[in-house]
Design a protein that fits this description.
It is a single chain. With 157 residues, the chain is mainly α. Helix content is 82%, strand content 0%. The chain has helices at 6-26, 32-61, 69-85, 88-96, 98-101, 104-117, 123-156. Helix 3 (69-85) crosses helix 6 (104-117). The protein is elongated, with a radius of gyration of 24 Å.
């Protein structure tokens, strides 16, 4: 292995600094505050809609608030899938970022998009196979996390 001379090290340092300056010049500035406000507004709107749907189930179907949770989530998933099919949810997610992708509606969008993209390959290998490429890891992580949390609870109590 050869040792670098002082001139070579200085030249490399200048090149690194030049590269760093070029990257900083051409990297677009991230509008952090604007993105946070958009995510807050859309994520908050999803939550408000979820509360309205839950209230609907409690008021009109005499569910308790706990019992209304599952049909509320199913309704939000169906609504987000429908908006994905219309091409609205993808546009909303582009505009809102995490506010549209973090709630359960974002997961519904990811699943519905995969189904729509691969429907020409058939129901089983196309839609079914690609749904599990997107949804499978999430389901596995959810099951493993639930198991570990249950195990901790059994050990602690």
């Amino acid at each position: 292995m050869t040792q670098k001379t002082g001139a070579q090290q200085a030249s490399e340092q200048v090149q690194r600094q030049y590269y760093h300056n070029v990257v900083n010049h051409y990297t677009p500035k991230i509008p952090l505050v604007r993105n946070c406000v958009r995510a807050f507004l859309v994520g908050g709107t999803v939550c408000v809609i979820g509360q309205w749907v839950q209230g609907f189930f409690v008021h009109y179907f005499s569910f308790s608030p706990d019992e209304a949770g599952e049909p509320t989530v199913a309704t939000l998933i169906a609504f987000a899938s429908w908006l994905t099919g219309l091409g609205v949810y993808d546009t909303l997610a582009q505009w809102a970022g995490a506010g549209a992708t973090v709630p359960v509606t974002g997961f519904a969008n990811a699943i519905a998009s995969a189904a729509m993209e691969h429907r020409k390959e058939g129901w089983v290998l196309g839609v079914g196979g690609h749904l599990f490429k997107v949804g499978g890891p999430v389901i596995v992580i959810g099951v493993v996390a639930a198991f570990l949390i249950g195990l901790v609870r059994v050990i602690v109590t």
